[in-house]
Design goal:
453 residues; alpha+beta; 2 domains; 30% helix; binds guanosine-5'-monophosphate; binds magnesium ion
Length: 453
């Protein structure tokens, strides 16, 4: 998963790109970068590096990046390793035409495309799928960026939201299924596209609308032009439901649904379907908080802060080894003994993936004196891997892929365990039938071309 942003303005925008990226930091903390087009000397300049936005994009760097059009990227690796060569935006020159791209999503046919390009002599510098996009784009870019984007879209399959920097302006693209979000906003004479509406709010702009699935938007000199990938052609929209379950910020509005409202509703529905008699509701911060609020609202069981979160610990989820993930969870979350001692607890989290977080938390809550721990999850069991950009690992690592709810309960040591059903998840999403739920129901909108274990 990643976050992308693009700005087209009549003034220098590197600082704004920086703040915009800062507001997308939750979407990726491994690496980041920005690229700007300097129209005076017709060059694309960029700075990228491993680490957080505030560490990589220092004032000295921003001062050297002058331009009125630019793009930015924060990365959470899902295709290609966590390495400095895989930082984005990617940039290059072909037939004296400069291009830079930032990509969110995963292509499912990039291995095949890469092999074909390599056969032709293309020499790749990264191990990410996004480089395939840059090469196909540059190969067909003969002076009309929209034409070359359309040809590229004929080749690439899977999830992609893109921002592209070209001499013709800023281009924003959302794949025909709209797997990953992309929003268009305006601030005076300036246009902003971002993975989440929140960045547009924070930069002081107004959200105009979501970029449509299969839409290509070209922004130049304060003018926005919209193109369809193909005329009279529409795939059924399949935005990733996991954006709402976990990934997006609470204040993000994606395809008309606010992530916070969605999460509160999920908690409410869970409580409505529940009959547990407990003393307190405790969220797993931060992702479990809105769900716990909803559960509390519906059940009237008092909501308490029972876990203290260390704000300086980053993601524990994708640490390479199980023991690192375990110490990571302990460092991140510690029970408040005075709150949990002797209590029967409803513990709310947004999802169970491997089961690491819940197992450790339940164990530590018991050690802190909790009488009972009833775990409630505001999404269904994650049974299937995601090939479209969410880092849900190989099926063998997903605790729900081979275990029943009762087996999972035993494994993580809860007194009881309940998940939200897929129908209830739809209800929480206002019954909008526009979501990919493949991680929960195995119905992949495009057949993934991968070998499963
Ligand atoms: P588990 O510990 O079961 O493997 O993962 C579940 C926990 O990780 C939940 O607390 C959830 O909020 C969080 N989580 C779920 N999906 C992701 C993800 O893609 N990335 C990160 N960083 N955390 C996730
Ligand atoms: Mg969490």
């Amino acid at each position: 998963m990643c976050g992308i942003i693009g700005i087209s303005s009549d003034k220098d925008i590197s600082k704004e790109l920086y703040y915009g990226l800062y507001s997308l930091q939750h979407r990726g903390q491994e690496s980041c970068g920005i690229a700007v087009l300097n129209e005076d000397n017709n060059s694309i300049n960029y700075h990228r590096g491993m680490g957080l936005v505030s560490d990589v994009l220092r004032k000295e760097e921003l001062d050297n990046l002058n331009g009125n059009i630019g793009i930015g990227h924060v990365r959470y690796s899902t295709a290609g390793g966590s390495h400095v060569s895989n930082c984005q935006p990617l940039a290059g020159v072909c037939r004296r035409r400069k291009l830079s791209i930032a990509h969110n999503g995963n292509l499912i046919n990039h291995n095949y495309l890469r092999q074909a390009l390599e056969e032709e002599g293309f020499m790749f510098q990264t191990s990410i799928d996004s480089e395939v996009i840059l090469y196909i784009l540059s190969r067909y870019y003969k002076g009309n960026i929209i034409d070359s984007v359309k040809i590229t879209m004929d080749y690439i399959k899977g999830a992609y939201s893109l921002v592209i920097l070209s001499e013709e302006g800023l281009v924003a693209v959302r794949d025909p299924y709209g797997f990953r979000p992309l929003v268009l906003g305006k601030k005076g004479n300036e246009y902003i596209v971002s993975s989440e509406s929140s960045s547009i709010d924070i930069l002081g702009g107004e959200v105009i609308r979501d970029i449509e699935p299969g839409e290509i938007v070209l922004i130049n000199n304060g003018e926005v032009k919209s193109y369809n990938y193909k005329d009279n052609y529409k795939e059924k929209q399949k935005t990733c439901i996991f954006e709402h379950v976990y990934f997006a910020r609470n204040d993000a509005i994606i395809d008309g649904v606010n992530a916070y409202e969605f999460r509160v509703r999920s908690g409410q529905i869970l409580a409505k379907e529940d009959d547990i008699d407990a003393d307190i509701v405790i969220p797993v911060p931060d992702s479990g908080i809105p769900g716990a609020l909803g559960y509390n609202k519906e059940s009237n069981i008092p909501l308490k802060e029972g876990l203290v979160k260390n704000r300086y610990v980053g993601r524990t989820f994708i640490k390479p080894t199980q023991s690192e993930r375990e110490i990571g969870v302990k460092l991140k979350l510690n029970p408040l003994t005075s709150v949990v001692k002797g209590k029967s607890i409803v513990l709310i989290d947004d999802s169970i993936v491997r089961g690491t977080t819940s197992k450790i938390l339940i164990d530590s809550l018991r050690k802190a004196g909790a009488k009972e721990v009833h775990l409630r999850i505001t999404s269904p069991p994650v049974k299937y891997s995601c090939y479209f950009g969410i880092d849900t690992p190989r099926r063998s690592q997903l605790i729900a892929s081979k275990n029943s709810v009762e087996d999972i309960r035993k494994e993580i040591g809860a007194d009881s365990l309940k998940f939200l059903s897929t129908d209830a998840l739809m209800k929480a999403a206002n019954c909008k039938n526009i979501f990919c739920m493949a991680c929960f129901d195995g119905k992949y909108p495009i057949e993934p071309m991968v070998e499963e274990d």
